[in-house]
Fold this protein.
Amino acid sequence: MSAYDGLPGEWELVVGLEVHVELATATKLFSASPNRFGDEPNTNIDPVTLGLPGALPVLNEFAVELAMRIGLALNCTVQPSTFHRKNYFYPDMPKAYQVSQYDQPLNVGGHLDLPNGVRVGIERAHMEEDAGKSTHVGGTGGRVHGANHSLIDLNRAGVPLVEIVSRPDIRSADDARAYVNELRAILVAIGASDAKMEEGSMRVDANVSVHKPGTPLGTRCEIKNVNSVRSVGRAIEYEARRQIDLIESGDAVRQQTRHWDETDGRTHTLRTKEDADDYRYFLEPDLVPLAPSAEWVQRVRAGLPMLPAARRTRLSQATGQPADSEAVCSVVERGQDEYVLAVGTVGGDIGRALVHVKEAFADQPATPHVPAADLAALTTLEVGGKLTATQAKAVLAEIVANNGGDAAALAAAKGFEALDTSSLESLVDEAIAAEPDAWQKFCNGDGKAMGALVGLVMKASRGKADGKLVTALLNQKKG
Amino acid sequence: MSASKPTAATNTPTAAAIAAAVRAGTTKAADLVEQHLATIAAREPEIHAFNHVMADQARAAAAAVDAQASKGHDPGPLAGVTVALKDNMCTRGIPTTCSSKILDGWKPPYDATVVQALQQAGAIIVGKTNLDEFAMGSSTENSAFGPTRNPHDTSRVPGGSSGGSAAAVAAGFSQFSLGSDTGGSIRQPAALCGVVGVKPTYGYVSRYGLVAFASSLDQIGPFTNTVEDAALVLDVIGGHDPHDSTSIPQAHPSLTQAIQQDVKGLRIGRITDLPEGADPDVQERLEAAFDALKAAGATIVDVQVPAFTFGLTAYYLIAPAEASSNLARYDGVRYGLRVEAADTDAMYGATRAAGFGDEVKRRIMLGTYALSAGYYDAYYGKALKVRRLIHDDFERAYQQADVLLTPTSPTVAFKFGAKGDNPFSMYLCDTYTIPTNLAGHPGMSVPFGTGAEGLPVGVQILAGTLQEPTMFRVAAALERSMS
């Protein structure tokens, strides 16, 4: 739980998130230049990207398709749309305007359900082009103010973005984090974006306000430069505290855009409402209206894969683990739930498979290198009492290291051939004979005495005994 | 009147005839180019049609065309035909200035789609022609590199903004030329220079590589000596371009075929509520045009286009609004002029203050204002509604008439400085041409005799969307009636 999950007094936090995601297209939104992160600066450019005189945009159809996937995955309505120009001067904006869907966004009116059941409304998810990237050299903190010069990389200029705007339905920093995580999982699942906050392919702005329930919403501030899921929570918590402190000390919150500073853990004023730019939006005359046909929308809808929430439910039902348990969430996030289910299909124990995949497959792809049958064989030995949990873990480590392997043979090679019940029973009898005092105490209900007996059996078996089985035998003999 | 005689056009062979001879190898493109370069050398100093004469490139291109023809390959339907390009069309490696200091020295790394089409058809580009800066003006006096003079009388303007392209054809510097028309910038100079000028339907010709003035209005078209030449050029440069989202997808019917038909049975519309202001000599030629068409078998019908009169006002909100956005990219960051200053914002200001002329600055300010928060609805928003009205009024008129006939320009070519410092009196030059751009319809100007002081007068033919074939039939009939 976070520090401000219960805000001081009767304050309630109100958060809406604006998330920009770069679409996983091969080329840019309006030109044939590659959409690729990490290339030499200013190599993925062309007359359109550079905003050269006479160059004209042509809409990337696949970008529209990915944008529709996002909208449909977020339960939005896909509607006819138009592009506008948002006019402003900035050196990394080559045309001095950004082309963006404005009053007629492609996707409107959806929702996203968090794993804990909270439903967050989606206002809109619209398409726009990214700007280039400026690097300010010689100032402090990478800000333009005080810099000696700026370096412009236009590789990112014209990269297709979808901006997903939530309704102000989020009431805690934890839910904000959960929203970002869930959204990212959906985006990755539908192939719309790699959604990497550290590479900037997913960027989060948070609109934060505080109020007391039953009173009107407070004045909001927009927090920018939030570059990780952890920062989302920290920035919101800091900002809520700042606003509450202001109000409680008799000041008012001013509508501002604020910059989150990761190093000092504070938000700083970027600009106030009064000096907001007038973007002079007008219909982009170089593009025609976008009106996806009903057939196209239907095709995109039909092509959507099962979404993370449904996959968690499915895995939960198959394993008996709660849908919001860490095991279910992390395995679905890695896309390894199909694999866990496959282990069950080939006769393995699905509950043990979930535990093993969660713990030992973090570095494995969605379809792990280990054949499902190999993991299935391991779980069968385990539930059959042929391997202890500790032994199974050791054998699995070998299997993972070798991208597969015969669990029984590996166990044998390690000398793990499990003790059958009769030889285990004789070891238990030996232990009782060796420690009659402990046995007497155990029979009188002293729990500590059981530990000594189990330890003796484990030692005698050189770790091959299953602790649970030993305990069961001891209880059985007690009568 | 000046002593210089126009070198126009009536006796020059048609582009089709030239191309046929070059394709057959009976005429050398190299010789044609030398003839044009000689004419340019003789008269260009007094006319100043060009920002840039491409003598070396023209000779090389002509040699390539001749080599193709001699090997039996077809160099194309415009083989060896010379063309001058308005200097707002991008030419790879060749300066493209828009007659503005802000683009002085800039060489595009790519060719406009029309340039590629012309080159593939075997046409020879001889140079880039002068214009009002960024195509804003009606006299070519707004060029940062000095005005172009009218070949019929060098004390007079050639019209504008495509004044250089109109003058180039009128002076015989090239067989034809291309201009761009946002509010009359092809048709008005065509009228003042006594040549044919066509503004096609919006989307008929690709705008890719045309430096934008007002994107929803700009359209490329030809200046030619004859209606037949104009038809041939449009057949070459028209058509869908995947690089221009606003270009019309369907194929265009051949205009060279269309002009074979006469005008019998066509309904020629006379706009009875046309704004007044045309000089009597111009009005007299318009009446003569109606008579000629009637004599050729057409019928004259009266129509009304009530919103026509609001065109000028709507245009001077919509075009500057788009221009204010289109011209924002000239900021000194990536190409063209940069005036160094203390910080980025100051550099923008200094660069744009030094790089743009007065008329361009005036329109950027006007357009910025019209789009601003709090003013949008009253200005830009209302202008868009008027635009819709104009379009609808025209559409109604075209249910009664196949084409409409108006003056192209209210006057013949005027003297330099005649419009003084009052921008509005210059704007009135485009009263008759602007509404068509707002409607997205085609229009063309055909020379139809002379008016005051023997200066050329043009008659404008307007038609509905993609009605170029009908418009050209009427143009050809007017031309025939003069011979």
About this structure: Confidence is low (pLDDT under 50) at residues 1-9 of chain B. The first helix of chain B runs from residue 15 to 24.
